């Protein structure tokens, strides 16, 4: 049981808080100090005044109850505190002396007066109530505190012995300093004890430090107004990473606890890194070759790059530095291709690939980022009232993707040699966006160790949350960015960063479809998307007929000749079919093989597409002739060539067929024999029938579409079986039954 500590009684505290007792001048160790303002605090043994010395330098003047020093010398504490002079992590200690003050009733109040550096700022306890707590803040707070704890233990062999949240200050830079960094500063060094002395309080320094982290951990879930906030994927990973670390710090057995400051610092830094970049070995391995059928499910850009088939037939058309509308059915690979074109994904390629790229892509998913925010808005009145907020949010969304990409670049060794993005350019970009977003000077301050890129990203995400929060509550923002914001941003980037100068900045707006983004919102955002600029372009993807209004001019009329000429449409499905019609099936086959081959390799399979699926072979020469000659056969549909043509560019359908063939053929990692043709046929037919049955479920015209597809299939069957071979007739002057 801890011994009961000595406290200052309430009467004494009130007297020492009064100007009637505290003199206007007090001398300590031969130097004069002038108490100015009483500072309310939660201390139980002392009161604090803010004052100045003879030269006007601000100091903290602490009056501690003498009862606490009856059995020990205050000089001993003063000597210990003096040993911390020179360490910037601690408030500078000036001196101490016993003083007797006169009370209004003539009694003497004996106390010990400590003089310490005055630290501007606010206590950690108050700071976390006003500020958004982020992973970078926690990580760098741990770094600063571990430095201080290590100084106490290894440098001077003391413990602070009163390290509660009120004795840790978050201090801004001093007036006139160019720095925009906040610093962690420990105050009230009057309770220092030898490190190995018996513990007389409930918590030691490590215990209080763990309590700081517990509070910070919990505050990550809330905004300064105590409302819960949604966590980003990175924040969720960070919380899951540090939770076991904090638990380990709480372990009573110091032999197994995470206790050493240097180890705590290292573990939290590793946790922060892992939260930003999940381990590469996990990214580059698939448990099953058919994991991640949809590109939206692939969290890792590095994995996406390895899964992407460079032989994609329309890749050259889409990656050109020209604006375009990429259309096609869901699952045809639009999202995969757009994400592959992003600079963030390109960073996982070789330096040579990065140098050779003609574009700078920034990927935006409308499905993930805009649909749940503004996709449901169809009312013209709401659009008109909140058009500034919607445009502002869209501007922030584009800015966040750029800031996030530049953060990754800032962590590379070749940031300057390859990209020309050094610390100077990083700060210039930070300051530019801060100005454009109207961020106040106070909000620009960041904890020591937090980079400009990290801080900027956190500011943008905070502004996005604020914008959406105001919108939900029906309030307009006082400040919003204009429609010209993106043009100003890209112009700045091209003028400051070498890698940007000779390349086209491309915003890859994915799934800008009518069922994701309402027509009203599409028309509003067209002012930004179709703003002709020399510094940037937009490439937009959508389902077929899902973004017709994208090609309309700003007055809402039909597409103009200029727009349709400059803003080309590429239909993936039509492109794929055209290749087949022109006899360029080798491109389709190569694409179909490469998609499967990458997945088998990443899943550790011994077999490859040629070995497991094989080529399509028909004695009659073609599939059509085989169907005529052997209508009752059960091996029509087999081989890579047939599968490639069946899918018509629908990658999700292609992978679904491969999956069912592997399942029916019982293919494992060690299989090196071809799946029999009749099993391939069975799997393909089963998948096709399932897709056909799904048509009925589509609303509102599922039944009608099913009828059209079924009758079209019957027509094709009859033409194939009973039609006439016109080519034969032209050649021989007669008709030959097919």
Q: Could you characterize what this model shows?
A:
This protein is an alpha/beta fold. It has 5 domains: 10-117, Orthogonal Bundle (Transferase(Phosphotransferase), domain 1); 122-276, Transferase(Phosphotransferase), domain 1 (Orthogonal Bundle); 319-569, no CATH class; 583-697, no CATH class; 699-738, no CATH class. The protein contains 32 helices and 19 strands. The strands form 5 sheets. It has a 6-stranded antiparallel beta sheet. The protein has a 5-stranded parallel beta sheet with strand order 13-15-16-12-17, sandwiched between helices. The longest helix has 31 residues, at 380-410. The chain is elongated and about 125 Å long.
Short description:
This protein has 32 helices and 19 strands. It has 738 residues and is an alpha/beta fold. It folds into 5 domains: 10-117, Transferase(Phosphotransferase), domain 1 (Orthogonal Bundle); 122-276, Transferase(Phosphotransferase) domain 1 (Transferase(Phosphotransferase), domain 1); 319-569, no CATH class; 583-697, no CATH class; 699-738, no CATH class.
In total, the number of strands is 19
Q: What class do helices, strands and sheet pairing give? A: alpha/beta
State the share of residues found in helices, binned by percent.
40-55%
* Physical arrangement of strands within the biggest beta sheet: 1-2-3-4-6-5
Discrete helix count:
32
Distance between the termini: 99 Å
Strand content is 5-15%
What's the domain count? 5
Question: What's the mean pLDDT score?
Answer: 85
Q: What are the segments in which pLDDT stays under 50 over at least 5 consecutive residues?
A: 553-561
- What is Rg? 35 Å
The biggest sheet amounts to: 6 strands, antiparallel
Overall geometry:
elongated
